[in-house]
Specification:
mainly beta, 14-stranded antiparallel beta barrel, 4 helices, 47% strand
Length: 342
């Protein structure tokens, strides 16, 4: 194959990957700031979150995604502030996308049970590849160095990003929406234009106790059904399922796909079954999930492994000047926290 043709085919593949979808987390409820800036500062005071996902581990150079965030709720301002960093790696050419963002949300208590939390995200990103890892035909003749001048056009692209979101929540119900990449940043690494489409996300869920009565033991069991719908450009995706909890243990099963829709070959549009388990303690929880592929990649991809860690803590006493009405804003969560709610 002509080396010039080869490099442009490679660039085309890169463009297709860049315009498809953002990285995703199956445990989306364990990556709250990544899901929706409205979740910023929704804990008693402070929270650290770390997420790691490896997708299609049986394929060469599996996709790997990392995210870390910190957020804090400031009682006096009824506001949440946060920072988030993400890195997504794929392919043998060292393709990497890294972002850093600042998040803000404001809490509006509509009544004693319902809170409205709008949020904003301001981010900076950089993506590109490592040209030293490319292996072109003429490189075999010149000690691994290609002489194709078009190779120099491949580089890194820096961009600014903007998003927003909102969340309505009570102690046991939540419904929200998020709009990422509202400015459709240019991700092209060829000094041309390749816009990242805006992503729209709608999500909701609830916590349903399986015991009714005067019992207040932490061993009361409950389920947390929820869903998330994402659409980015021509691609859309639906996840729904539930977790069963008897604190501190949780197990769950989820389905990713659109059973009401068929693809171009006439089969049901489906992607994966997701199995989840976690340990939820007072201030610390760990979750693990495995995506079992049920699409055409089921025999070769190896699914996806995902790990999440969340740590919440109170670093300072609540100021006496803070109104009780603001200090007791309820927090939606997948696990019980009676000390915060009561």
């Amino acid at each position: 194959m002509n080396k010039r043709i080869g490099i442009w085919i490679f660039a085309l593949l890169i463009g297709v990957s860049a315009s498809a979808q953002d990285p995703q987390f199956s445990q989306f409820y364990q990556a709250p700031l990544y899901l929706n800036p409205g979740f910023t500062g929704i804990t008693p005071q402070q929270r650290f979150v770390v997420n790691h996902r490896i997708q299609w581990p049986n394929l060469p150079q599996a996709f790997a995604t990392y995210a870390a965030s910190y957020d804090i709720f400031v009682d006096e301002l009824r506001s949440g502030f946060g920072i988030m960093m993400t890195t997504d790696k794929m392919g043998s050419a060292g393709w990497r996308t890294s972002t850093f963002g600042l998040l803000y949300s404001y809490k509006v208590r509509l009544n004693d049970n319902l809170v409205f939390s709008p949020g904003l995200y301001f981010g900076y990103g950089i993506n590109g590849l490592d040209r030293t890892k490319l292996r072109l035909g003429d490189g075999l003749e010149f000690n691994g160095q290609s002489l194709d001048p078009d190779l120099n056009r491949l580089g890194n692209q820096q961009y600014f990003d903007f998003g927003s979101g909102f969340l309505f929540y009570t102690k046991s119900l939540w419904l929200g929406g998020a709009f990422q990449h509202m400015n459709t940043p240019n991700l092209s690494i060829l000094n041309s234009t390749s816009r990242l489409p805006m992503k729209t996300t709608i999500h909701g869920g609830g916590r349903i106790s399986l015991y009714h009565g005067f019992r207040t033991s932490s061993k009361v069991s409950y389920i947390t059904p929820s869903f998330i719908y994402r659409k980015q450009g021509p691609i859309s995706q639906l996840d729904f399922g539930l977790n069963y909890h008897i604190d501190p243990v949780s197990i769950g099963v989820w389905y990713r796909g659109k059973p009401f829709e068929t693809n171009v070959i006439g089969t049901v549009n489906q992607d994966a079954l997701i199995f989840v388990m976690g340990i939820y303690l007072a201030n610390f929880n760990v979750g693990y999930s495995y995506d079992f592929s049920v699409s055409e990649l089921s025999t070769t991809s190896g699914g996806a492994h995902e790990l999440s860690i969340v740590y919440e803590f109170v670093a300072k006493p609540i100021s006496r000047g803070v109104k009780k009405r603001n200090r007791l804003i309820p927090c939606p969560t997948f696990n019980r926290k009676p000390n915060f709610w009561n």
